[in-house]
Amino acid sequence: MAHVACGIDIGGSGVKGALVDLETGEYIGEQIRIPTPNPATPEAVAAVCREVIDQLDVKIGVPIGVTFPAPVFDGVIPYMANLDQSWVNVDVDELMERYLGRAVVALNDADAAGIAEVAYGAAKGRDGVIVFTTQGTGIGSAIIVNGTLLTNTELGHLEIDGTDAEKNASSGQKTLQGLDWEQWAERLQRYYGHVEFLLNPDLFVVGGGVSENHEKFMPLLKLKTPMIPAKLLNTAGIVGAAYYAAQHSS
Ligand code: BGC
């Protein structure tokens, strides 16, 4: 495997990229962040990704992983929850190759963050069934079984009590609806209790900015499964994208 790879994380507010040392899972040099264009159409975002790799001066041959806030099946986005709807059915492998002048490895943002936590972070060296969720505008998920990622799970869109789960239990909704920690924890209890019932995991890892405040909500939850906060926080998407790209670049 390469020792250095590049990760690019496409989010609703920013497109971020960095070179990553794959031995340590740490950035080499600075992270670049460019605001997500508005409207965030595929072509506009791809042009920003180009800008990111130019600023990072990523050499040809260095694997590049790019994350999307959506599932990516065979290089194509089947639906998009929280970014411009023009992404639906876009072949992102083709789009990125056209703009970046080289092949990239495209993957889901939560999958990237989840494998980063297993490779370098909170779940490093842990076997069994790990359910990683990332809390933000939506809820992203990654399931890792004995180190192997089950790609493109969408546990944020479980329908619970007639509602798309992320519309009720995401940290974005906590902010939008002005919920206090207790009120939000009730929703989390319903959500993670249901996921636990369906999957019986060995470990929950919770990422996203709100996991910095884990002591405000994790102690309020009554689950059989241990739950721990993510460790990499802001860097997880980029680090995981780089790691995955190094493993899957041809
Ligand atoms: C999307 C997922 C994504 C998550 C976090 C959800 O709405 O469907 O694919 O991982 O948001 O961005």
TrEMBL record:
Q: What is its EC number?
A: 2.7.1.63
- Which InterPro entries does this UniProt record tie to the protein? ATPase_NBD, ROK
The enzyme's first-digit EC class, named in words, is transferase
Per its UniProt record, what CDD domains does this chain match? ASKHA_NBD_ROK_PPGK
Q: Which domain of life is it from?
A: Bacteria
One molecular function GO term is: polyphosphate-glucose phosphotransferase activity
Keywords, comma-separated and alphabetical: Kinase, Transferase
Describe the family membership recorded for this protein in Swiss-Prot or TrEMBL: Belongs to the ROK (NagC/XylR) family.
**NCBIfam families the record matches:** PolPhglucPhase (NF045942)
Protein name, UniProt field: Polyphosphate glucokinase
Organism of origin: Schaalia odontolytica
Q: Which gene encodes it?
A: ppgK_1
